[in-house]
Design goal:
The chain has 5 helices and 16 strands. The chain is α+β, with helices and mostly antiparallel strands. The relative contact order is 0.13.
Length: 403
Amino acid sequence: MDMKRLLKKGMAGALAVLTAAQLCGCSAATPVISELEDKSVKIVKDLLEFGIGLVKGSEDQEDTNADEESTAQNMDAEQPEAAEMTEEERIPDEDIAEDVFLQKLDKLVSDYGLFGKHQTGTMTTWQDEWFEAEGIMGAAIQDFDSDGVPEMLVCISEMCEDHAEDGYYHIMLYMWECEEAEAVLADSVPFAAYIQSEYMDGNLSEVLFRAANWTEGIQALQIVQVDGYSYLMCEDQEVASAFADGSSRSYWLMSYRDGRLEYDASFTQTGGGSSDFAYTGYRFEKGALSSSDLYFSEWYEDNALFDNYGEALSSFWEDYGILVEESRRDDSSVYDTYEAFTSILSPDNDVASVFVFTNTLVSREYVGASFSTIAGFEANLTWGDELLEQYSGESESGTETES
């Protein structure tokens, strides 16, 4: 547009020169004027031809620019579709994700070995070591967060850094995602009930193993489907019956969402050991504690919600759509199923086991004048998924041992 105005001014100036010469009274026959007039006419003519060329070139350039701009706009308009295709390609399908996870599982089995499926041993004191506590206890591949893409959960018993000096192991839950054909660790948490207690550091009551394992019990992790959503139901029940007395039992619910393993609920033993048992129900919203209520207590002065243990347990879990096994619902007190090392989950639930571990006192003898105890134990681990079967017998860390 500026070029056009410049050309118009240039041509107008040339014409003005010619007009001025004529107005001065100069005749066209005057040689100088005639020559000036001829030259002016030529200049105007040349300017007109040059200007027309420039204007045409400018218009052609504008047309080219417009075409390029239109092409760019068309490319921009098509870009979202291309980006969407790239995003779809980035999301792995189930077969690709499973292959990636199996490769990662190979590496984990190589690093940790498998937790022994069957171990036996005897103890004459509570310090006798017989138990191999390290290894992979369970694994599962499925869509845990309902995003249409599978994840892999791996449960590993490994040395607990906070209690390494005492030789304790804890169970860690690892959740893996598949991103760009690679297994990426999304989150990890210990296998631990939630608790609030002035006698404990932190809010986790961890399950701990050691080589001198003299407590009976059951530890289990099972996937429960409720209304199409996957929950991780965790169970811990322990009884010290060989060289002491006392028991504990806690049950908690977790889920995986937005890349994190979070608590949904915990029915935790918060009092007692040999007697005076108490259980608190903790509820969570998006991983944050929202409420805590005393559900059952043997202390009569406590204002618990229930005076029947079985009713307290079943009522708490029914709020989450989880059914408790019938015999546990009938427990009037903690002692009714004191040594029942089975899951509390009813078979009416939609359940898939990740692992169930039990340690049982199978024999006990008293010898000598001092009646020394010889305690025989049998530990068993079962997998609910066939993922680990291909490694069975090759890399098990636990073996049958005797102290």
